[in-house]
Amino acid sequence: MTRPSHFLNNTSLKGNATPQTQSLQDQLLETRLRIEQAKLAKLESDIPDPTPKYTRYEDMPPPTPEDEARFEAQFRELIAALDSEEIEQRLNRFRTPENIALRQQLKELGVL
């Protein structure tokens, strides 16, 4: 059983309308070429871009209300830690007479 030529010319495999004079072999070669080109395009699109893309601060979306609340809580914790006695105690460990004398010498030399 043979297929009518108009069936072969109207298949969904064809990208462009081919003239009636084109042979079946030429149509198959064209179809294979388009398939290979599509495969190549797909492979090329899967290759990662070698240059990293960064988001500029201006392009960032505004923070959500939850993010703002979390930031505010962390900020208040840090501010509270600055006023705490624990930090003062840690600083006092480094306020030895030797360190105070060294700091004075560095000031006299113009380093500080």
Short description:
Residues 1-23, 44-67 are annotated as: Disordered. The protein has 112 residues and is mainly α.
Low-confidence stretches: none
**Using DSSP, what is the number of strands?**
0
Helix content bin = 55-70%
Indicate the proportion of strand residues.
under 5%
Give a short account of the largest sheet: none
Q: Overall pLDDT, averaged? A: 79
Total domain modules: 2
User: What is the global morphology?
Assistant: elongated
* Helix count, DSSP H or I runs of 4 or more residues: 5
> How far apart, in Å, are the first and last alpha carbons?
99 Å
The helix-and-strand class reads mainly alpha
Query: From N to C, what is the helix and strand string?
Result: HHHHH
Radius of gyration: 37 Å
Would you write up a description of this structure?
The chain is built from five helices and no strands. By secondary structure, it is an all-alpha fold.
Provide the fold topology.
Elements: H1 5-9, H2 24-46, H3 65-82, H4 85-93, H5 97-109
From the structure above, extract its key features.
single chain; 112 residues; mainly alpha; 61% helix
